Request: fold
Amino acid sequence: MLLEELKPGLRISGLIPAEAVTVIAAQWHGANAVELTYKTAGGGLDQRVVFRKDEDRLSVAHSGSRAFDAPAGDFRLAAEAQRISLAGLFDPMLAVATSDVQPLPHQIRAVYGELMPRTPLRFLLADDPGAGKTIMAGLYIKELLLRDDVKQCLIVAPGGLVDQWQDELFFKFGLRFDLLTNQLIDSQPHVNVFETHPLLIARMDQLSRNEHLKAQLQETEWDLIVVDEAHRMGAHYFGGKVEKTKRFQLGEMLGEITRHLLLMTATPHSGKEEDFQLFLTLLDRDRFEGRQKRSADVSGIMRRMIKEDLLTFQGRKLFPERIAETVPYELTALEYDLYEDVTHYVREGMNRAGRIGGKRRNTVGFALTVLQRRLASSPEAIYRSLVRRTERLERKRQEILHGTYRESMPAIDPADFDTEELNAEEIEELEEELLDAATAAQTVEELDVELTELRALVKTAQRVREAGTDRKWTELSALLRDHALVTDANGLPRKLIIFTEHRDTLRYLQDKIGSLLGRPGAVRAIHGGVRRAERRQITEEFTKNRDVRILLATDAAGEGLNLQAAHLMVNYDLPWNPNRIEQRFGRIHRIGQEEVCRLWNLVASNTREGEVFTRLLEKLDQMRETYGGKVFDVLGQAFAETPLRDLLLDAIQYGEQPAVRNRMYEVIDSTVGDGLKGLLDERALAVERFSDADLRALRAAMDEARARRLQPHDIASAFKDAFTRLGGRIVAREQGRHEIAHVPQRVRSAGNGPIATSYDHVTFDLDRVRPDARTHVDLLVPGHPLHDAVMTETIRTFEGALNRGTVLVSAALEEPHLLVGVVEEVADATGASVARRFAYVYVDSRGTVRPAGPAPYLDCADAPDGASADIACGLPWLADAEAKATSWIIANRLPAYLAEVQPRRLAELVRTRELVTKRLTSERERLFLDAAAASEKERRGEKPKESSASLHRKAAGLDVRLRKRLALLDQQQSMSTKPPQILAAALVLSVPGLSSRK
Reply:
């Protein structure tokens, strides 16, 4: 054809192989070149310069936009690979169907009701401990991966939880995430490790404390970042200034480099509203700017459900009751003498440290409080601690005499232990490091005085140890006989967990309980010094082996463990951070627990600390009668203003003074009485609950998803066909399982994750994944690297068949139809996709369009040898059939789709606009008032805390931020539908029509 014939609206062939395109514009450049703007069959726009020498290969497309000459088998294979790859666009819960989980109502609502509709996501998931937040995050991650919305995902978690995250994502969701280890970093010394590992799990403090890693991370962009235990990313007001921790600064940076940000914590609120709102700035700085005392509006940005309100799909309570009992006991006369002597030593040491002042005072004070807590733990713990301390101070004395002593104690901030700036393992390590060495004594003379006192304490402790009259052990052994050494209703031995704070006590109890049971192997112990792999092995033994009855653990070992195999727990040592009580209880009070959970707290009532704990536990028990187990969930928040640690230290130093004791009791009564009631009432207003209607709606949504779901036989059939065509070998083994003998290199190269060269056991049916624990069976479904690589390579290899089109026949049609596969999409004015979906439609000779379902080609047969693409030439209506399909979708389907997607998104944006405007305007006005006051002081010659010029600059900065945010919200609120994108087409003939042609 001549170049002069190229006009807008004309369909031409020859520009792109096996595809007709529509000319949008033709601009001449001289007499022999035309710049063409055209639309492809898939709906994309492109440009190309065509020269006079190209005229011979161009022609007017008389058979519509396709050649319809592709082999039907190739078309069907590529169409199935395409359908499965886009399954997330028509199966609303694809991750549920392809994961080894059975999600509960609150998890379904969190993922598909709260997280999925928000694009981009900025959200805080704050359900109670044990509610399965990792499951919710895993479903969300996999859903976005399956929908091709996420390719790079980073998970940031405390060090003790990263292995658990990796295991859960692999075994439950088939997702292979790499751990950011030193070995991984060192293996690529000249490469940004974050750019080469798109699915990565990193330790929170590894990132926050390593400036080089942080700099590398800041250079990258992520689709999704998930932060577990996010409350550790805290900031605090100190005077009028914001003190940002390194973890908080990391949180700020993470928000800048990701599209979706999901924060997760069971304890989002420390009790200080201003700190909570600072934490929320990680999600939306504009919405929570400034320091305000009134409660923050967290609608649309946070979801919190508490254990007692969680239900099964049948409407039953998900969690059993929680009961805590205090077991008071009195020290023997010998034990009490030791208690008084050590307490006197600790008090005198604190007084000496107080005279030193500065950071050293805090460090010495910390070491002495650890000594006091070990005194309360066990005779073994205090004896061992006193012996080690004596030995360390004697070495220090010798080093001073020989001039070789070098001070090396780290500085300690006691507040870190209640704000969880340090995790349990770090605290345990610090205790071991400082307890034996930190002292106020600096000279040989001072050390001699302290060593004389210590040697006397060691003798007293040894007498107590050798007397064998450990009252605390007596109480524990009675509990064991009454509860742990008997069988349950099914005749199985009961399992019990004992928490202690100190390794010396842990080893002591392991020997004592082993002797009591007569079987040392029935007792296992884990602490911060036990390697993570060994922890997992011990946990597995305790969970699965009926002969392992007792688990001893410290808090460092207890972080992240799921121990619902037990429902009985003892706090042998009560933690000074009340948050730890709930964290410990949460190890057994988890999803899957069916028994009433019981906790016994052992307290020496005739000690100063014991009096504080006894009063606290009595008030808790009174509150539990009204509020049930919920009292444990907010106990840590209740002590935000006056930390429990402070009360216990006052008790040690001044507890014999009636006025101090009365003041402590008043604080406990108001904190645990009125304070807990207020927190629980406020919390009740902020949490979500399920109604019967909610459960019915969720069950209906699950049923609808099931009806639209890809079935295992569809996935299996498509995979086997595609894999074989790509050169792979797969053979059937036992029922429902297969062996893959060879994975071709081309398939391995197409994958985003690790793909083996062969697999001993694979299945396409979730029910056959792990019928026994001896072998791991790979579930080959969307999301598995091998499955996805096969689908990707199949589409790449055979997508030409989708573009060229093929000829099929159907007995269900009375006349020829054009079948087209279409993606519909809603986007906002920023260009971001808000929602997408995929389906097929039929177009007949009259231009009538109707839905055809998700895979109509599966109900069609290949055209017989007599039917070729020449048939298309005899059907002139094909020339504009795709255009009519596009017009019909634009006129009839897209308005309804926009109307379905737009309202919820719009309501969220309108609410955000209102809150951001209110907050930034309020903060700006406050700054102007402060500036006026500062200006008045400056006029009088006084120096204000901050200059009026600085305050005016800050107010002006807020104005700029408000304008920018409102402009962005304007763009996000402007939503529209994109033109439909046609991904595949086929000519489907009726059987009668085919017969008459023959």
Q: What stands out?
A: Confidence is low (pLDDT under 50) at residues 993-998.
